Amino acid sequence: MLLGTIGTNWITKQFIQAAEQTGQFELAAVYSRHVATGAALVDSFGHGQVFTDFGDFLASDVSVIYIASPNALHAQQAIAAINAGKHVLVEKPLVTHPSQLAAIQFALDAHPEVMLFEAMRQLYDPNFAVISDLIAKHPVSGATLTYMKYSSRFDAYLAGEDPNIFTTKFAGGALMDLGVYLVSSAVAWFGMPQSATYLPHLLASGVDGDGVARLQYPDFDVVLRMGKTTNAHAASEIYFGRDTLSFDSPGELNDLTWLSARSPKSLSVPHADNPMIEEATFFAQALLTDDHAAFEKQWRLAQQVHQVMGQLRQGTNLIFDTDPK
Ligand SMILES: NC(=O)c1ccc[n+]([C@@H]2O[C@H](COP(=O)([O-])OP(=O)(O)OC[C@H]3O[C@@H](n4cnc5c(N)ncnc54)[C@H](OP(=O)(O)O)[C@@H]3O)[C@@H](O)[C@H]2O)c1
């Protein structure tokens, strides 16, 4: 399948490497605002054409588009790609406000041949399935999920620059960037919460540098800790009464340990070095086998996740420039 990409930062390169490693995709087109930036990406793979005109890019012969632009552009670019008849893999967060889900659904309804997936890579990690199996077999009594990483762009922000990920213009901040992994994992593992509240710690730019969320379920609570201005080394935990599953953040899933009255037991299974290989494989399989059931399932999950993301922002001062007025 011929692959087109939007955005030329390191994550796009990592995805192209993963996609080509599956043997099912070949980079054919790169959209960039600048010829030189696009050419540098194309040259590193030795094939592909650079487009600086978005309309020309959409009219090219690619059948699949991977979107890794700033968050606030995802929904509109995904809709344009769907309307051009291309399958889409959109980086997280798929949308920045739940109202954009209806617009995507409208485009999908008009193009029933097209499939769209949110690039929520941890869902496809084999360790994610290990945790899902444990949850299916043991009653859960609560969880604390943590993803806090000092951003490579935070020093620039502190120096007075305006990196996209720390602006309300591009819907940046902790919840949208890292919290979305936690919300996605929680909804996939535990289902829709009865209520969802968020206490963001806002930076002067208006985005959340860090924050704590609480998802309430009938029999337990899930606490989410997210941040881009500090590094957390504490493990994430899912509680099963007396026993506990401890693991690194849901965004990494390298080490899973079962803690009980007996000695600790590692439950981790090997996963690919490039964390995008498993999702690229899933995506390729769904497209090659025209697996609309897989698409529907992941689309339903993405919609639920972004309903919760919307609920979390309700009643807070975390407001993005692209929010409906
Ligand atoms: N799955 C993962 O593990 C993972 C990891 C990192 C990031 N991500 C996601 O990938 C996306 C991109 O993140 P990033 O950190 O790479 O973002 P970024 O550096 O701010 O922007 C990504 C690309 O978008 C284009 N761009 C930048 N500013 C723009 C603007 N003002 N208007 C239009 N286009 C602009 C640039 O490409 P050109 O200059 O070539 O146009 C740039 O390379 C985010 O949604 C993020 O959540 C995912």
What would your notes on this structure say?
By secondary structure, the protein is of the alpha/beta class. It folds into 2 domains: 2-116, Rossmann fold (3-Layer(aba) Sandwich), CATH 3.40.50; 126-271, Dihydrodipicolinate Reductase, domain 2. Helix content is 37%, strand content 23%. It has 10 helices and 14 strands. Strands 8-9-10-7-11-12-13-14 form an 8-stranded mixed sheet, covered by helices on one side. The chain has a 6-stranded parallel sheet with strand order 3-2-1-4-5-6, with helices on both faces. A hairpin with a 4-residue loop joins strand 9 (208-216) and strand 10. The protein starts with a strand and ends in a 12-residue tail after the last helix. The model has no long low-confidence stretch (mean pLDDT 97). Residues 7-9, 11, 32-34, 37, 68-71, 73, 91-92, 119, 121, 164-165, 177 line the site of NADP nicotinamide-adenine-dinucleotide phosphate.
